[in-house]
């Protein structure tokens, strides 16, 4: 037996037994021994498998007795067998299931499917359920049974730590602005026909404003207001030229005496009856001392009414005298004399 040298990339296999070679040469039609099982033929090829294989080998230029094939020859054989199988399968499938019978010819056109109309109510139901769950979680949960404990374990940390909403009673609920009736400060008018001989100007409305402030303020706050007004009036009365002593709404002393958050409405009424004028809601001035009423171009002159009592030079003297008497009466009432 001649030994053929190996070629790079060549594969060899042992030759089959002689009986198998004889049966393969006869096309698989040799007589089988009794009791021996016949090899099963692959479906779809029948008895023409050997002849078709030899034809393919001849077409590819592979000798019939050659048992060792190179990689190129193996690839060509696998490709040839693969094309043959695919052609047979395509033919059989085409004969069994024609595409014309499977397709449906129709002239009607189907509109595009819109899932919003179908699933819209589902989304709204989910949102309503989510809102209801969030609302129930915000309420204070009372643990009374094991079911409440299981429900508490299913809640998220945000739902557990959320502060419960306070339920407003009907009487505590916020009312509309139209329903709220604020207590208005009554307008003070002078009804005294006889003038007080101790004062040069009419002080009747100032006394009414003092009475209203006393009724709506505590004793300590009212005493603080009276003391503050006496000191300020004396500073304004004896102020020299070039020195302007007025009040600013953000002045700590003024806010402490008239109201911390905002000025007391009864205190504001008292200041206006005395003769003070608030310019641009910032400065409280005495027109006769702080404004030049004879100058047409004076700043703030137009905001002073013609009936303002602070335009009279004798008004500030009467106010000092009136509040001095009020301070004396408060001291006597405190001492009980």
UniProtKB/TrEMBL annotation:
Where are stretches of biased composition, namely Basic and acidic residues? Answer: 127-139
Q: Where is the composition biased (Polar residues)?
A: 89-115
Q: Where is this region: Disordered?
A: 1-139
Question: What protein name applies here?
Answer: Uncharacterized protein
Annotated organism of origin: Alexandrium andersonii
């Amino acid at each position: 037996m001649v030994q053929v040298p190996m070629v790079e990339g060549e594969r060899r296999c042992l030759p089959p037994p002689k009986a198998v070679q004889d049966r393969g040469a006869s096309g698989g039609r040799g007589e089988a021994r009794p009791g021996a099982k016949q090899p099963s033929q692959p479906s779809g090829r029948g008895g023409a498998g050997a002849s078709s294989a030899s034809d393919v080998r001849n077409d590819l230029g592979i000798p019939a007795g050659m048992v060792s094939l190179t990689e190129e020859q193996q690839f060509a054989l696998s490709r040839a067998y693969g094309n043959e199988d695919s052609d047979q399968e395509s033919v059989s499938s085409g004969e069994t299931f024609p595409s014309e019978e499977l397709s449906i010819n129709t002239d009607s056109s189907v509109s595009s499917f819109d899932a919003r109309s179908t699933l819209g109510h589902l989304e709204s139901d989910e949102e309503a359920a989510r809102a209801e769950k969030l609302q129930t979680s915000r309420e204070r949960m009372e643990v009374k049974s094991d079911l409440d404990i299981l429900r508490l374990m299913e809640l998220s940390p945000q739902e557990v730590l959320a502060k419960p909403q306070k339920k407003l009673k009907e009487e505590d609920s916020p009312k509309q602005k139209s329903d709220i009736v604020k207590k208005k400060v009554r307008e003070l008018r002078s009804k005294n026909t006889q003038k007080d001989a101790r004062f040069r100007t009419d002080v009747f409305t100032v006394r009414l404003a003092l009475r209203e402030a006393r009724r709506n303020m505590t004793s300590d706050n009212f005493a603080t207001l009276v003391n503050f007004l006496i000191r300020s009036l004396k500073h304004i009365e004896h102020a020299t030229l070039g020195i302007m002593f007025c009040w600013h709404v953000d002045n700590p002393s003024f806010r402490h005496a008239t109201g911390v958050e905002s000025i007391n409405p009864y205190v504001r009424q008292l200041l206006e009856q005395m003769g003070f004028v608030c310019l641009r809601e910032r400065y409280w001035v005495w027109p006769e001392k702080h404004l030049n009423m004879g100058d047409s171009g004076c700043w703030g002159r137009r905001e002073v009414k013609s009936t303002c009592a602070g335009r009279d030079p004798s008004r500030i003297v009467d106010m000092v005298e009136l509040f001095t008497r009020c301070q004396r009466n408060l001291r006597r009432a405190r001492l009980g004399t």
